[in-house]
């Protein structure tokens, strides 16, 4: 399962950033595909990006001059959530893969992330969603009546690492225009990088508003982590293997679960399985294998 997930993650990264030429030219692709949103966090301004980031699109919609509810952007995000929940985070998010690669770097690792401090830190992503993605673009408007994409502009480390730095490296005029705003974002990105070196998916746990949004759908998404209480022997293996500190035997639909499938692969009695609920329903209807 782990190898399959890694393959899907790399394919998602490459598909989201297929405009390889943009990294050498220091230019952003602005073709027709940019009208579409990808499911995961992938900055619009990344030189390789061929489609739009859902968070950036949502903020642009909220902060537009004459605010109108965009059924396309909101509906697409809700569609991804209803289908997959946080499977998007575990399989389809390019910045999720980047975080996992950073965590493989030899560095001090935080051993216990099940403390009250880390539980409280997990609420940070909901704050980012409510304040920087929704409230500020909606209410903090400039003289022209436009709201700023506050999360993208002031916070998003994915934008800094995958868009800002590559563009600056390849574009001399941009290097000459670096100011305090970039220094602020670079500082935040540095903190996130160090955090990812020490804690598995540090950004996902504490700051990612897209993960917070998809987490709301984990309980109702069509792709589920199914738990069979009758088969469970309560060995605790699933809780020990989970890098997001979820106990699948207690909360298989936890908003923190990224549906990586490690717990189901390790379960010695097959009490856990991951898949679309239609498939599970059909399996139940057919009865046990003979």
* Uncertain residue ranges: 278-290
The chain-level structural class is: mainly alpha
- Order of strands in the sheet with most strands: 1-2
Major sheet description:
2 strands, antiparallel
How many domain units?
2
Polypeptide structure, described:
There is one protein chain. This protein folds into 2 domains: 2-215, no CATH class; 223-286, 2-Layer Sandwich (Alpha-Beta Plaits). The protein is globular, with a radius of gyration of 20 Å. 54% of the residues lie in helices and 3% in strands. The longest helix is centred in the middle third of the chain and has 19 residues, at 180-198. With 290 residues, the protein is mainly α. Residues 278-290 have low confidence and may be disordered. Strands 1-2 form a two-stranded antiparallel sheet. The protein has helices at 2-16, 21-25, 54-62, 71-84, 87-92, 94-103, 116-121, 124-139, 150-155, 157-170, 172-176, 180-198, 202-206, 209-215, 237-241, 262-266, 277-286; strands at 223-227, 272-276.
């Amino acid at each position: 399962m782990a190898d399959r997930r890694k393959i899907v993650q790399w394919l998602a990264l490459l598909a989201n950033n297929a405009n390889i030429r943009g990294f050498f030219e220091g230019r952003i692709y602005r073709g027709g595909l940019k009208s579409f949103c990808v499911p995961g966090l992938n900055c619009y301004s990344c030189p390789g990006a061929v489609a739009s980031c859902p968070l950036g699109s949502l903020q642009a919609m909220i902060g537009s001059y004459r605010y109108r509810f965009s059924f396309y952007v909101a509906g697409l995000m809700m569609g991804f959530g209803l289908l997959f929940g946080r499977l998007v985070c575990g399989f389809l998010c390019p910045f999720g893969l980047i975080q996992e690669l950073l965590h493989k770097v030899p560095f001090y690792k935080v051993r216990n992330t099940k403390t009250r401090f880390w539980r409280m830190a997990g609420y940070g992503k909901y704050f980012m969603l409510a304040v920087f993605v929704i409230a500020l673009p909606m209410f903090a408007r400039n003289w022209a009546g436009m709201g700023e994409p506050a999360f993208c502009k002031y916070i998003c480390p994915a934008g800094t690492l995958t868009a800002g730095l590559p563009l600056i490296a390849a574009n001399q005029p941009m290097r000459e225009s670096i100011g305090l705003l970039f220094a602020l974002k670079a500082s935040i990105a540095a903190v996130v990088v160090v955090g990812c070196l020490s804690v598995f998916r540090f950004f996902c746990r504490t700051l990612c508003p897209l993960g917070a949004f998809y987490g709301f759908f984990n309980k109702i998404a069509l792709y589920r982590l199914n738990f069979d209480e009758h088969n469970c022997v309560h060995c605790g293996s699933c809780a020990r293997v989970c890098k997001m500190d979820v106990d699948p035997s207690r909360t298989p639909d936890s908003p923190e679960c990224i549906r990586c499938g490690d717990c189901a692969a390790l379960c010695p009695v097959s009490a856990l399985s991951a898949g679309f609920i239609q498939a599970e329903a059909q399996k139940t209807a057919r009865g046990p294998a003979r």
